[in-house]
Amino acid sequence: MSPDDVTAIALTAQLAALSTVVLLILGTPMAWWLARSRSRLRSVVGAIVTLPLVLPPAVLGFYLLVLMGPQGPVGQLTRSLGLAPLPFTFAGLVVGSVIYSLPFVVQPLQQAFSALGELPLEAAATLRASPRDAFFSVALPLALPGFVTAAVLGFAHTVGEFGVVLMIGGNIPGKTQVLSMAIYNHVEALEYRNAHWLAGGMLGFSFLVLLLLYSRGWNRQP
Predict the structure, then answer these.
(1) Half-sphere exposure of 134 (CA within 13 A, CB side)
(2) Among the four residues 8, 156, 186, 213, which has the most C-beta atoms within 10 Å?
(3) Domain span including residue 81
């Protein structure tokens, strides 16, 4: 592998790890609300969260690029705060990755919270536990398999991104050139041997992720 390939692998791992942490922080309260709310907005929010599953990555990346661009609302906000524009930066990749991988984290968490039922929380309430205490001491430990599944799927899905990454980050070596872009570059240059090494590594990684989930039973909900 070339030094650029090694850099792309390291950048991809960094992006996936940071995106997964952000996804778990944002996705946990969102999944809890979706699992327990009876609001009329629940279906609307659920559809928005799931949208990246059916929306072509290039379309999602295009609209994120427009939103974060100099003339977009997010771009104007970052400029007013004295921050650098998000497109074609690592920070922009994180934002795009979080949005693109959101359903892969929220859905397993929502299913885990829904599977808990009311009895554990009612038992905690009879022991005078506040809703906050019941969430952290009862709901979170019981939903641990869902968190493992969400973290693994969120990380793995971010590693395999292409369309959103291409639209938002471009293909800047050492800055936004992730593993999928490195494979694309090798194929475009007819360097199939290098492309095989990287693509085979991603194939093996994806298989091991799924094997881990199914062998440990983490794909099952409590």
Answers:
(1) 18
(2) 8
(3) 3-216
